[in-house]
């Protein structure tokens, strides 16, 4: 059983490296408290891997992948727009992000996004394949541990990077990344012919254009504020 746990841990951890779920963990860590993100990932991992280890081998082929992709994309889109709205409409003009959402809301957002992202993903099928020829409980334990470890690594990277970046800039970047993930999720499901790099490049278009627009808008707003302060001082 221990050997199966170690095997499952290794397979799931390696499968998660560079996967969209790990990138989502990094992105969430830029916006929410690290322990909230890790707790959300843990709960989602327990649920998804229980399905994969128990009945995933049969359920996986029946999952409505396109419908799940749409729901996932909509969830990420809402989170992205919500994050951008909070970052851009704050009354405080200082270089700091607005107050983060409540712990409960953040926890539910992370659980929902990760659960939807993992359903039908390659990691779920990897766990199902392992469970078909190994002890399902050991596969479940190892898979959950591997997925949580990969998420924790991404959170650590996000927190280290976040210390060297302005908080408002982090909030804006997080919102744009959520929009990117939303677009890529839809493209991967409905336009698989684009391939990995093709979907990445296409999904980057909208966030890149919006990002440039936000940058221009902020520059003009800062210039207007400086002009107003100069007029008041004179």
Report on the architecture of this protein.
Helices cover 82% and strands 0% of the residues. It is mainly alpha-helical. The protein has one domain. The longest helix has 39 residues, at 195-233. The protein is elongated, with a radius of gyration of 20 Å.
Gyration radius, in Å: 20 Å
What percentage of residues falls in helices of 4 or more residues?
Answer: over 70%
Low-confidence stretches: 93-99
Per DSSP, the total helix count is 9
Number of distinct beta strands? 0
Q: What structural class should be given to the helix and strand makeup?
A: mainly alpha
User: pLDDT average, as an integer?
Assistant: 80
Largest sheet: none
Q: How many domain units? A: 1
Shape: elongated
Strand-and-helix sequence, N→C? Answer: HHHHHHHHH
End-to-end separation: 77 Å
Strand content range: under 5%
